[in-house]
Amino acid sequence: MPKYVVAGTSEIEPGERKIVELEGRKIGVFNVDGEYFALLDQCPHAGAALCSFGTVFGVSDADKPDGDISYERNRAIRCPWHAWEYDIRTGESFFDPRNARVRKYDVEVVPGSPADVVDPDGGRQKGPFVMEGYAVSVEDDMVVVDTSRRRPARGSRAQAQSRA
Amino acid sequence: MTAIDHAPSAAPVGEARLGTGIFDVDIHPVPREGLIASYLPDRWRRHIHEYGVRTTNGLTHVTEYPQMYGGAMRNDAWPDDGSYPGSSLELIRSQLLDPYNVTVGVLQCLAPGGQTLNPASQALDPRVADVLTRAINDWQLEHLVYPEPRLRASAPVAFEAAEFAVKEIERVGSNPGVVSILGLSKTLEPLGSRKYWPIYEAAVAHDLPIQFHLSQGGGHANTGTGWTSYHTEYHVGHTQSLQSQMLSLILTGTFDRFPDLKVMFVEGNVVHFAPLVQRLDYHWKTLRGEVADLQRKPSEYIRDHIFASTQPIDEPENPKHLAEMIEEFCPDNVVFASDYPHFDFDSPETVFPSVFPDDLRDKIMRTNGLRFFGLEG
């Protein structure tokens, strides 16, 4: 369980990020309103330097038209190339099945559990792509990144890569 | 006028050497602010400053929204000095040529200045189109091709005014830094029209192929059924203009008239051409009496005459299908394009799925480009 000290807490102010290199891979460490998150500096889609150049932005959400809108600032990051968006906390991509329902009768079994679904009634669902993320802790004013892999990559591209 | 430093206007251009590198047929340079004006005769500089450039979309300085939002540029391609993406040779080198070993990169300048997809060659006044395309050709040779031997120019010409276009091909067509003529997907008439034949004749006489890059404008609604309501509709539907252009070039006998003419459709995807060509063959069998002068079956014109660039790459759910569809079109006629610095950039490292056959990848990245441009390697 290798752990690396990457910065002092004063070095990455809220809203800032620092790109570090650990074990030969670039990793973006973000301070989001006082919480720290670390993601691999590589978009799962086409490999862009997502953490170096991505735009961090807020996400608004509502259960239904004219419903109350909730807004959470600095929730997601957008890729500098093709504008793919990921949850900065979990590295997961999202999509809305109501606007992406292309095959009505297909049923498939996927890894995971019903708890993974944010809204089982067809609202926002977890998407198939997951960025690699790292555990970050603060120890005595130092920001520490743990490079033990937390999540395997998923999705059709990841499966194709592992079959090859 | 403001004096602007000009690069030397003539310099030796060495042979393009692909070596062990890759071909990229679609790089978008943009002249630095004010630079193109410095290449214009006084009269036209004043005219453009006071009245703008009226183009075939009926407007000046306005492009269809929102496809050019943010210049349609990659977020990471904005130079630190506040200039425009594509205007820094250093960034073209450090973000594209060096990291991916692009040893031959072909410039598709769709400016003037930042107004990509609304290019000089679509100016309605042919004299304006002429001076602007001449300025762009001088600028891209002096500022990009002479200082960087890995870059080659595709020369925009006043495509709707053949007499001007032919003069420009005669002026720059023999420069070794120019490897193709740059046309657009949206034209006033279909590309097989005889009004364009003098351009094809001049291109062939100079051993130059023609690249037709995706564009807006052209003086027509952006689809065959009128204007689109949604950007998504536009973005997905623009391939139909390339399809119409391909049908026109084949059925008008343009390739019989110019047996050495080669064209490439740039930034119009690839795989949608495959079923189109098959359907064309199928109907031609019944209707060939209408086009009795055609010397070959329609699909037979593809290999010798019609190329397509990869970008934006199709990403089928089953990654094996991409290679199958390219094989259906013509595996020898597809060439890699990055579209740097636009947001829908394709990286040479991730453009193909891992199941993509190595030999086909090598053709697309290297040898097909040599064949299209008639280069040795």
Automatic annotation (TrEMBL), chain A:
Pfam families: Rieske. It comes from the Bacteria. GO terms for molecular function: 2 iron, 2 sulfur cluster binding; metal ion binding; monooxygenase activity; oxidoreductase activity, acting on paired donors, with incorporation or reduction of molecular oxygen. Signal peptide: none annotated. Residues 4-112 form the Rieske domain. InterPro entries: Rieske_2Fe-2S, Rieske_2Fe-2S_sf. The keyword Metal-binding applies. This is Ferredoxin. It comes from Amycolatopsis methanolica 239. The lineage of its organism: Bacteria, Bacillati, Actinomycetota, Actinomycetes, Pseudonocardiales. The gene is hcaC2.
UniProtKB/TrEMBL annotation, chain B:
One of its GO terms (cellular component) is cytoplasm. Residues 24-375 form the Amidohydrolase-related domain. GO terms for biological process: secondary metabolic process. Gene3D superfamilies: Metal-dependent hydrolases. The keyword Thylakoid does not apply. Keywords: Lyase. GO terms for molecular function: carboxy-lyase activity; hydrolase activity. PANTHER family: 2-AMINO-3-CARBOXYLMUCONATE-6-SEMIALDEHYDE DECARBOXYLASE, ISO-OROTATE DECARBOXYLASE (EUROFUNG). This is Amidohydrolase-related domain-containing protein.
